[in-house]
Structure formats: structure tokens, C-alpha cells
Amino acid sequence: MTLGKTANGVTVHDRYNSHNHIAASLVKEALAKIEMPAEMDYAVLEVEMGRIVGKCNLVKTGIDDIIVYAKRPNRNGWTAFVKDRQPIDCSSVVVILKRVAINELVLITSWIGKRSPHEPWDPKATKESLPFWRTHAIVWGTEEVLVETATTMCPW
């Protein structure tokens, strides 16, 4: 399915196992603000939309927060979640794009929020991943989880 075009005319398709977390109309609007250089094969892009576009469910955590870890469907590791918090207003979206042809990209994932490091279990994790995910978490109840995997013990 075609989602839209970038500002420089590159067609973007959804993939069959997409992790798209936002409405197609918002993805299309964000794509229209992106210039994807021909030499770039993969990009993680934070797009400022200029207005509140939704709620970000990834929040900074503190010492008093209740943190649990659980696996999400189709993920290989545990994600940090925070209980008793609410998502926050956000004016940006993140899109991850992969080039499949000169004038074609595929959407790997998208979400309302800010760019963040890969989770510590991810093969693409960097040295920023662990410190970030020790101080940030997804609001419990905003993402589907495999409840039987929930634990309060940090798995990473």
C-alpha cells in the first residue's frame, strides 16, 4: 500500500509487517516534509509537525516511578514500562524509512514522539541505549504486551 511521497518525490510504501503506530493521513503529512537524499538507504527521522498531533507514550522516569518490563508482540526483548503515568502532548512524529529502489522507500515504523535509541536488547542498540532506557519508559497500558512476560526485574 502506498502511504505517500517525500518532499523530493520519492514514493513510500507500507510493509506487510509494519510497526506503523499513527494514522495514514499523519504519515502522509510527515512524509511530505522529508527530503530523502538518493544516497541514503536508511533513515530515522524526527519530523516536527508544528502543532500537537497526539500523545507520546514514551516518558522520562524518576526514582518514584513503578517500572515493569514486558515483551511486546513481534519483539525479541523486554521493553520498559512505567505504571501510573499518562502520555504527554507531542508535536513531532518519527518515521523510519528504508530504500528499496531509487525512487521507492518502505516504512519500517512510525510513532508520535521523539527519536530515541534502540532498546538495549535490539541488535542495533548503541552505547546510548542502556542509559536512555534506564531513565525512560513507555506508559503501561498504551501498547500491547505479552502479560505473561511481565516482570519487575530488569532483564538488561
Task: Quickly give the structural class.
Answer: mainly beta
The end-to-end span amounts to 37 Å
Order of helices and strands: EEHEEEEEEEEHE
Q: How many distinct helices? A: 2
Arithmetic mean pLDDT: 94
Q: Taking strands numbered 1, 2, ... along the chain, how are they ordered across the largest sheet?
A: 1-2-10-9-3
**Low-confidence parts, pLDDT < 50 over ≥5 residues?**
none
- Structural domain tally: 1
Describe the 3D structure.
The chain has helices at 24-31, 129-133; strands at 2-5, 11-20, 42-48, 54-56, 58-60, 66-71, 78-83, 88-90, 92-101, 104-112, 136-139. The protein has one domain. It has 156 residues and is mainly beta. The chain is globular, with a radius of gyration of 16 Å.
Task: List key phrases describing it.
42% strand; 2 helices; mainly beta; 156 residues
Give the secondary structure arrangement, pairings included.
Layout: E1 2-5, E2 11-20, H1 24-31, E3 42-48, E4 54-56, E5 58-60, E6 66-71, E7 78-83, E8 88-90, E9 92-101, E10 104-112, H2 129-133, E11 136-139
Parallel strand pairs: 2-10, 7-11
Antiparallel strand pairs: 1-2, 3-9, 4-8, 5-11, 6-7, 9-10
Provide a brief overview of the structure:
This protein is mainly beta. It contains 2 helices and 11 strands.
